[in-house]
Amino acid sequence: MIGTSDAFGAGGRRQSAYLLRAPTGSVLLDCGGSTASGLTALGIERDEIDAILLTHFHADHFGGVPLLLLAAHYVDRRRRPLHIAGPQGVEQRVRQVARALGHSLDDHRLGFELRFLEIPVGTTREIGPVEARAFATFHSPESVPHGLVVRVGQRRVAYSGDTGWFDALPGEVNSADLFLCECTQVQREFEYHLSLDELAERSREFDCGRLVLTHLGAEMRVLQDARGFELADDGRVLKL
User: Fold this and answer.
1) pTM here?
2) Rounded to the nearest 5 degrees, what angle is found at the Cα of 7, between the Cα atoms of 83 and 121?
3) How many CB atoms lie within 10 A of CB 31?
4) Beta-carbon neighbour count of residue 172 at 10 Å?
5) Which secondary structure element, helix H or strand E, spans residue 149, and what is its range?
6) pLDDT tens digit string along 22-41?
7) 181 — phi, psi (to 5°)?
8) Active site includes 6?
């Protein structure tokens, strides 16, 4: 777990990013603005990453991509291809945010091949070392939100991205070995984010090997009792 906070760095934690390691390679689920420093702090080489899978286009989930790409080129001298997959329009969005941040990818001839791949909702794609399926979520529509179920061999990891409650959520992630589920708030205040109250009330609907709450806001960070749920934390390692 590279970054597990909400958009505002609650508790001094980093923004959303999770490294999934498998015998066949490694993928990064989301890449918030603090991801590059998080990887360095945890001793993880950028060159280990075969693919970046994005859930939606909010800065705390994909704002770290441009500098990670430039670091791969200038610092790591990367030569292996890198896949970036996400909702429809992913290449345009990444290039737009790079230009807006003053690091246009159009001004740099990268030393490695950059492969963009769209994963429309309801489809499954092979991306680097994994197979990923996208499902619709309930979040700000302009961010083109979706969740992911990533499969490597017989193991499956589900990730909600950002979402409020919608009745189809348990069915999308059930049977996963691990479900990384956003839980920004304790009580339901913002409809586009999940709350501990809602998840506790609906907990019996989930049938996952392990369910861990992440994207934690300030109130979630200081909880002494998460009502039986596991909580994510920066630098935490989960083994399946």
Assistant:
1) 0.97
2) 45
3) 33
4) 20
5) strand 146-152
6) 999 999 999 999 999 999 99
7) -115, 125
8) no
